[in-house]
């Protein structure tokens, strides 16, 4: 039985759109986190309000994406992948999903612990509830550390992920890997 994907096999449109939407939002959220660092307090708070709202969007889109992934079959792996490449890509994809959920959850917990369970306002439109924590500096700092370490671990995974994609494109000269997740045809 031939279990290899035809070269044209690609991720479903929903998976592709969610992949790129979430990727852009994650990059944006790192930019906001760093921009807030050396700003005066008022400005930093305004930037962090956007960071939090975008982070919650990432959480929601990722939940949608995981549901989509579980209900839509991904294309079969490309025929030219070596077994170790396939195994590594599966582990990295799994860990990426894990961090795409854990990092915003950690941010939400950080916000909730610092603020004593205050809601997160999403772009002045609606309130996303806070987690039911009493205000605590210790807990805020602990969750803050976890959130930060998680975010940087996720960034390292993304670098590995992009390096893998580019290796297939440039070293192996195989355009199919990128084509499978590209927005165009
Ligand atoms: C924050 C940035 C990114 C995140 C979090 C991310 C995450 C993911 C995840 C979780 C998958 C697995 C899809 C699945 O099978 O369910 C995936 C697939 C893929 N991503 Fe990304 N990605 C990011 C950026 C990029 C970039 C910049 C590129 C291109 C240079 C890229 C290229 C790909 C490719 C080619 C696949 C399909 C791999 C395959 O066919 O097995 N990704 N991505
Ligand atoms: C994928 C989504 C997210 C990413 C990549 C991300 C990334 C980061 C990074 C890199 C920092 C550290 C900045 C520094 O070095 O000072 C940070 C801090 C922070 N983030 Fe996020 N974040 C995300 C989601 C969220 C969410 C959803 C919330 C809250 C609802 C949030 C709230 C915070 C807070 C309060 C801090 C300051 C932590 C502290 O120092 O106590 N983040 N985030």
TrEMBL record:
Keyword terms: Cell membrane, Electron transport, Heme, Iron, Membrane, Metal-binding, Transmembrane, Transmembrane helix, Transport
The keyword Kinase is assigned to this record: no
Taxonomy, superkingdom: Bacteria
GO molecular function, one term: electron transfer activity
Places the protein is found: Cell membrane
Family listed: Belongs to the cytochrome b561 family.
Protein name per the record: Cytochrome b561
Species in which this protein is naturally found: Novosphingobium kunmingense
């Amino acid at each position: 039985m031939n279990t290899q994907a035809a070269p044209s096999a690609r991720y479903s449109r929903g998976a592709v759109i969610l992949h790129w939407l979430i990727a852009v939002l994650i990059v944006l959220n790192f930019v906001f986190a760093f921009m807030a660092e050396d700003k005066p307090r008022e400005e930093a708070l305004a930037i962090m309000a956007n960071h939090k709202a975008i982070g919650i969007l990432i959480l929601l889109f990722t939940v949608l994406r995981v549901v989509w992934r579980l209900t839509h079959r991904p294309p079969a792996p490309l025929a030219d992948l070596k077994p170790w490449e396939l195994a590594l890509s599966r582990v990295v994809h799994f860990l990426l999903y894990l961090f795409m959920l854990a990092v915003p959850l950690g941010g939400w917990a950080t916000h909730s612990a610092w603020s004593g369970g205050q809601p997160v306002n999403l772009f002045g439109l609606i309130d996303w509830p806070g987690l039911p924590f009493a205000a605590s500096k210790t807990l805020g700092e602990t969750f803050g550390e976890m959130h930060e370490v998680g975010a940087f671990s996720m960034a390292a995974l993304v670098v590995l992920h992009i390096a893998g994609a580019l290796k297939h494109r440039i070293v192996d000269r195989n355009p199919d890997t990128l084509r499978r997740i590209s927005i165009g045809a």
